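User: Quick sanity check before I run a bigger batch. Here is a single chain. Can you write out its predicted 3D structure?
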Amino acid sequence: MRKTILILIVMFISTPSLAQDDQPIKILQESVDKTISILKDPRYHGTAQRDALQQKLEEIAQQVFDFTKFSMLALGFSRRNFNSQQRKEFTDVFSRFLAKYYISRLQEKYSDEKVIFLSQDIFANSRALIKTKVLWHDLKIPVDIWMLKRNGTWKAYNVVVSGVSAVLNYRAQFRKLLLKKSPAQIIELVKSRMEQEGEKDKKNVPTM
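Assistant: Done. Predicted structure follows.
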């Protein structure tokens, strides 16, 4: 539960770089403030506004997070088991699942956590490591964000919470699943989980 909340805070509360010379840490700092203000905005607190808030957060997530890169890294060498069409379909389905899952959790679980930005390291002008700490109750939990610059825009592609990598976590799960299931079955499994999230969202919205 704790790691899920922290990953949410960092993965999806940023907006993309528009200027060529913007530093990734600066972009994250400004975007965290902006997105937290949206989460706190009373205009989005009502049940009727749940879908509007979810759509707004999803638009930001699609802009800032490189789901294609994350999906391929999550498969790792196991992607060799997928043909080109299956890799494309997996990336599409898994990306939509991630957005739906984490945005739903962000809506439900955010409770005034704070993010402290510590440093950034840029490698070869195209990759960056942003080190932060998240204040969660009385804890200060280290969260590292890996970002990639493409076409002048910085996007996140991995989050490491207390030394636990989101990419490696999913990679281990998929490696284990592929011992018993085919790529086609994996894709169907992700689709099923996405449908379950949709049903969960409906149940969590009280009727008027």
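Strands lie at 114-123, 127-136, 139-150, 153-161, 164-165.

User: Great, the batch can go ahead then.
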